[in-house]
Amino acid sequence: MPEDAPARTWSATPGGAVIHARHCARCGTIVFPPQEYGCTTCGAHGDVLTAADIPAHGTLVAAVVVHTHATFPVPFTMAELKLDSGHVIRALLTGEGEPRHAARYRGIGLEIGGGQRLAFQLEAAE
Ligand SMILES: [Zn+2]
């Protein structure tokens, strides 16, 4: 990994993709995005904040197709997803099928633009 590459914000696991966060041992808050300035609820910092993972599963709130971008291959679809953890994130969709409000999506690793990225795909209808 190049020195100036940003810290990886997610990982693929056997149980599905996870998004990296921090857990506050003092109050139980899952701090996301992860940072070292302190718990966003109680202000605790230091060793009370430990690594935690959020499952990359959630529900689609909104989506938009991007047709112009300086560096990323277009078109692509960006979405606002509400994760099961309650955190709302901006996320790349895989582009398979039309985005559906309130549909369930899960994160997967996708090779795009020369790198592995977290993208969300529509879960199969149950
Ligand atoms: Zn806290």
Which helices and strands appear, and what pairs or packs with what?
Layout: E1 10-11, E2 18-24, E3 30-31, E4 49-55, E5 57-66, E6 76-83, E7 88-93, E8 104-112, E9 115-122
Parallel strand pairs: 7-9
Antiparallel strand pairs: 1-2, 2-3, 2-4, 5-6, 5-8, 6-7, 8-9
Bound molecules: zinc ion.
Written description of the protein model:
The chain folds into 2 domains: 12-54; 56-122. The model has no long low-confidence stretch (mean pLDDT 90). The chain has strands at 10-11, 18-24, 30-31, 49-55, 57-66, 76-83, 88-93, 104-112, 115-122. The chain has a 5-stranded mixed beta barrel. Strands 1, 2, 3 and 4 form a 4-stranded antiparallel beta sheet that branches. Helix content is 0%, strand content 47%. The chain has 126 residues and is mainly β. A hairpin with a 2-residue loop joins β8 and β9 (115-122). The radius of gyration is 16 Å and the shape is elongated.
Descriptive terms for the model:
126 residues; mainly beta; 2 domains; 5-stranded mixed barrel; 4-stranded antiparallel sheet; 0% helix; 47% strand; binds zinc ion
Bin the helical content: under 10%
* Number of helices in the DSSP assignment: 0
Number of domains in the coordinates? 2
By DSSP, the count of extended strands is 9
Which sheet architecture does the biggest sheet show?
5 strands, mixed, barrel
Distance between the termini: 39 Å
* Low-confidence blocks of residues: none
Oligomer: single chain
H/E series: EEEEEEEEE
> Would you tell me the overall average pLDDT?
90
Q: Which value, in Å, is the CA radius of gyration?
A: 16 Å
Rough outline: elongated
Strand order of the largest sheet: 5-6-7-9-8
